[in-house]
């Protein structure tokens, strides 16, 4: 083979190798995601490289690896608009948490709302996962991942069948409110205890809260109390678990088993291929 032929062959191999490398890059938009459930879904689908920045404040532990080598896009409530403008991603993924910044984000790039919609939690997760997968031509992969997730959920639900009632509350600055947690009551089909007479719900804007005292919780007499600690998730002083147990005991609820769930996972994330599985695992571990 002549030198010219060798050079030509080498160039051809280099071009083919380059094309192969390019073809391995998934199609679809580069994004900044302001929803951790959407983020963990993209990662589960093998699309982590399409995430160009993430909000690092309050980032759940299970997503901590994404913080390396990516700019900080602020937090879930207040996006860092300067970072968004500088990176100019193809798309920004948002939910209602970013409502105050929506117009400014729309001035920079395309904005996609990935909020979970409707009262059927499983269907809402399904729709969101498939919607994200559609952006990247990954519907088949998403379908397989969802099938795996729902099989896992069903296995865990069957294993918990017949469990005693479980209560879920949100803790915020020393106060508690009842939490209608769909992972617990829809996906795992666990029974919630009855709220005592005299406990009234309050409406703030479009949201309804049911405040509870430790005495109220004791009167509900759940076998397990699962706590989502909002305070800890947003950087405020966390729940004093020993004090809660003492207050429950003083009200006759000393037998209630108390578990504080991972704050960032439950308050700042959820509804994704990874987060739903992790949440189910935490509940199962708490109850077994």
UniProtKB/TrEMBL annotation:
Cleavable signal peptide: 1-20
Gene Ontology CC annotation, any one: outer membrane-bounded periplasmic space
Any GO BP: iron coordination entity transport
Keyword Plastid: no
Residue ranges annotated for the Fe/B12 periplasmic-binding domain, each copy included: 30-288
Subcellular location: Cell envelope
Isomerase recorded as keyword: no
Keywords assigned by UniProt, alphabetized: Ion transport, Iron, Iron transport, Signal, Transport
UniProt record similarity statement: Belongs to the bacterial solute-binding protein 8 family.
Protein name: Iron complex transport system substrate-binding protein
Source organism of this protein record: Marinobacter segnicrescens
